[in-house]
Amino acid sequence: AFDESADAEATPRGHPPDGGKSRVIDIVDMCQQINKPNHFTSAYDIENLVVRRGLEFVIRVTFNRPFAEGDDFQVEFLIVAAAQHKGTQVVVTFGNRNGGPWTGRILETSGETLMLGVTPTADAVVGKFRTYVAVMVGGGLQRTKRDPSTDLYVLFNAWCQDDAVFVPNDGERREYVLNDTGVIFQGSVGAVSHRNWTYGQFERGILDACIYILDASRMPIYNRGNIIKLVRKGSAMLNSQDDNGVLVGNWSEDFSMGTPPTSWTGSVKILLQYVNTGVPICFAQCWVFAGVFNTFLRCLGIPSRVITNFSSAHDNTGNLKTDLIFKPDGTPDKRHTRDSIWNYHCWNEVFMTRPDLPPGLAGWQVVDATPQETSDGHFRCGPASVSAIKEGLLCHQFDSGFVFAEVNSDVVFQKRDRYGTLSPFRVDKTHIGQAIYTKAVGSPAPMDITITYKHPEGSADDSRTMARAEEYGCERDHSELPQTQLSVAISCHLGQDVNLALEFQNQGEYPRSVQAHLSGSVVFYTGITASQFKDQSFSVTVTPYQSERRQQSPDSPYMPHLGAQLCLHFVVTGQADDQSVSAIKVVNLQTPSLTMTVSGTPQVQQRMYVTVSFTNPFNFPLHNVHVAMEGPGLMSDRTRNYSVINSQSSFSWTEEFTPRLDGPRCLVAQLNSSNLSEVSGHVDVIISP
């Protein structure tokens, strides 16, 4: 039993202490030096013991007299949800007396001191427990007073075979649970870029922040050991869309009321600011949602990783068709195009069992905190089985149909006549979900995991998957389009300017005169146009069985249009009698890097220095420059601002730090300005104990 009053100092109910007796229990020692290495929790910057469920930990209890065989005592663990003033109590007994589900044993007796072993169940509730020791004295129960130093955190356990998040491979456990830095891939197919991200799940205050998020969600205590319910609740709480959650999404260019998404170096600052203010943090886009969600998951012991899907369909009609609409003259009809193709979209995967699904559908599951569609009334997504998505088994919960469309939609090019009637003129079944990447285990390199989501395009297995998906209600395109003898392709060379080559090919026996149109825009990574800098119509004649190549360059410079966007989007369309052609090209611009160097003795608790330097290589000044850097286990978040950095001007910034953790560590820096973003740098350092 437990006290459910509003008193924050809730304690277990029991008999009153034996008033006249002296205190029976002198010391309760949580044996952190023994337990933390055994539970892989030494990295947590926290005063209390952190353990993983399903694995024994030890407690040393000292009484005021030698322990006798018949002495009756128990250890009690109480978890209380701060927002609800409700909780649950676990009683651990020793000897022959029956207790709760957690098991206890006496490991060693030495005079007044007992060494006790306690094993939480592999499905125990995850969170922060208070610890009490109670002894039967003269017919009454004497219990230790509340002592914050004996509080205990219990996490999921990827090392325990009976835990729902068990991962068999040790290298994967270390990557997906213990690695506190990572790489998030961005850009586009053929021009993949990346950003280093500080997860920082072991930094001071982060574990309490993750528990605060669960409390703020009002998630019942008894559900917090259930991995499916917990990640589903976390997916909803990481965005602020309908529950006052952690992050506010913003896909505009106006970040004046908060921090631009490109300025964040990691999750730590975001989570600490949220827990300290209780107010959603501005602003995030998909990689920020995925990075912070990854911190939340790994901090609680859940194996997780960030995924990037290149050419990701965001389909507003809920079918397997992404409709791109064009006007009668071949120019893009942005007003009537509702669907969009994101250059990339980031989400998370969590490794877990799925007892609610048929065999074979456990393992990696998609969870996504970016608010896109509601699921059971909240903006969240998953967990959706990756294996189920690959096989088109879209009847299974949760949100597998939505993720399936993100990686498998057909792109349908529709022409809209003057009466508003749409007629398809081209279907591309291979553009969406061209590549799906995550960080490789033990390496910053990308690992292509496309094959885990989909069979090879056009294979017999792929056809079976698509047919099965349609049986479960996914609507595909079945337009009967005539074979075209005309095609067009776009290639690009990046120098001081963007130089395009348009190649029209004619496979027919007659010459073709093509009325063509080229559109060039600066776009958000979501595919939405920020500004247009090229809009040109032209004609080209292609002789039979030949190709005709046309060079193009922008009419006006694109750099003034960039702002926070570093992506150019070109669309060419053409009409020749009864035949239509089209092609899309996405160009990601490369930015310069920050230079980072470290000096000093690379050893725990020894003074070190890091220097960040940068020279503006552009022929225009950078305004309102904000530079941030941090390194988990090394240095907390530091920032510096510069009002302007003129063309060819430089800055150099040095900070002192003292490493807290040994092993391979990483420092990350990010530069953001009002007219250029995505300038980053990192430096790796190995710290000796």
TrEMBL record:
<dbReference type="InterPro" id="IPR014756">
    <property type="entry name" value="Ig_E-set"/>
</dbReference>
<dbReference type="GO" id="GO:0046872">
    <property type="term" value="F:metal ion binding"/>
</dbReference>
<keyword id="KW-0012">Acyltransferase</keyword>
<feature type="active site">
    <location>
        <position position="368"/>
    </location>
</feature>
<dbReference type="InterPro" id="IPR036238">
    <property type="entry name" value="Transglutaminase_C_sf"/>
</dbReference>
<protein>
    <recommendedName>
        <fullName>protein-glutamine gamma-glutamyltransferase</fullName>
        <ecNumber>2.3.2.13</ecNumber>
    </recommendedName>
</protein>
<dbReference type="InterPro" id="IPR008958">
    <property type="entry name" value="Transglutaminase_C"/>
</dbReference>
<dbReference type="InterPro" id="IPR013783">
    <property type="entry name" value="Ig-like_fold"/>
</dbReference>
<comment type="similarity">
    <text>Belongs to the transglutaminase superfamily. Transglutaminase family.</text>
</comment>
<dbReference type="InterPro" id="IPR001102">
    <property type="entry name" value="Transglutaminase_N"/>
</dbReference>
<dbReference type="Pfam" id="PF01841">
    <property type="entry name" value="Transglut_core"/>
</dbReference>
<dbReference type="GO" id="GO:0003810">
    <property type="term" value="F:protein-glutamine gamma-glutamyltransferase activity"/>
</dbReference>
<dbReference type="InterPro" id="IPR038765">
    <property type="entry name" value="Papain-like_cys_pep_sf"/>
</dbReference>
<feature type="compositionally biased region" description="Basic and acidic residues">
    <location>
        <begin position="10"/>
        <end position="22"/>
    </location>
</feature>
<dbReference type="GO" id="GO:0007399">
    <property type="term" value="P:nervous system development"/>
</dbReference>
<dbReference type="InterPro" id="IPR036985">
    <property type="entry name" value="Transglutaminase-like_sf"/>
</dbReference>
<dbReference type="InterPro" id="IPR002931">
    <property type="entry name" value="Transglutaminase-like"/>
</dbReference>
<keyword id="KW-0479">Metal-binding</keyword>
<feature type="region of interest" description="Disordered">
    <location>
        <begin position="1"/>
        <end position="22"/>
    </location>
</feature>
<dbReference type="Pfam" id="PF00868">
    <property type="entry name" value="Transglut_N"/>
</dbReference>
<dbReference type="GO" id="GO:0072378">
    <property type="term" value="P:blood coagulation, fibrin clot formation"/>
</dbReference>
<keyword id="KW-0106">Calcium</keyword>
<feature type="active site">
    <location>
        <position position="345"/>
    </location>
</feature>
<keyword id="KW-0808">Transferase</keyword>
<dbReference type="Pfam" id="PF00927">
    <property type="entry name" value="Transglut_C"/>
</dbReference>
<feature type="domain" description="Transglutaminase-like">
    <location>
        <begin position="278"/>
        <end position="371"/>
    </location>
</feature>
<dbReference type="InterPro" id="IPR050779">
    <property type="entry name" value="Transglutaminase"/>
</dbReference>
<dbReference type="InterPro" id="IPR023608">
    <property type="entry name" value="Transglutaminase_animal"/>
</dbReference>
<feature type="active site">
    <location>
        <position position="286"/>
    </location>
</feature>
